[in-house]
Design goal:
Length: 148
């Protein structure tokens, strides 16, 4: 199947500086990730980086036990800080960035609206955590929520 560049987007999922400190051996994926993004750019696919991004003070995260409590306690992934930046091997300033506050790429943000408004019908995506964001995003594509 040949993908129409006008209707295809490559999503990079959680390829952020802050994630590399939390996931063992995550730097290993960067050479493959850079090749995938270069291929997408060459073929004029839209590049969208989806990653964690919280407001100052993390009001989106509860104070009780949750999968993101450690993020809040360590003041990570606050928008505008180094931990939310996407890896330099794949990020260009003209790329679109969408922040999320839960596991899946479609959770609590405007990703679906952006895709629909740009006529995107085909997604190619990869991420740092196959059992986390990648699986949750795949589940979110068919309308079921990948949120935690």
């Amino acid at each position: 199947m040949k993908l129409d560049p006008q209707k295809t987007a490559l999503l990079t999922l959680d390829i952020q500086k802050g994630v590399f400190g939390l996931v063992p051996d995550s730097e290993r994926v960067m050479s493959v990730a850079a090749k995938a993004v270069a291929f997408a750019r060459q073929n004029q696919f839209r590049i969208i980086h989806v990653g964690l991004g919280f407001s100052e003070g993390h009001p989106e995260i509860p104070d009780f036990e949750s999968p993101f409590l450690r993020v809040k306690q360590n003041n990570l992934f606050v928008k505008g800080t180094p931990s939310v930046e996407f890896h330099g091997d794949i990020f260009h300033p003209e790329d679109l960035v969408i922040y999320k506050q839960r596991v899946g790429a479609f959770s609590d943000n405007h990703l679906e609206l952006v895709l629909r408004s740009r006529g995107i019908e085909h997604l190619v995506f990869f991420g740092i955590a196959t059992s986390g964001i990648v699986l949750s995003t795949l589940r979110g594509v068919d309308g079921s929520s990948g949120c935690m």
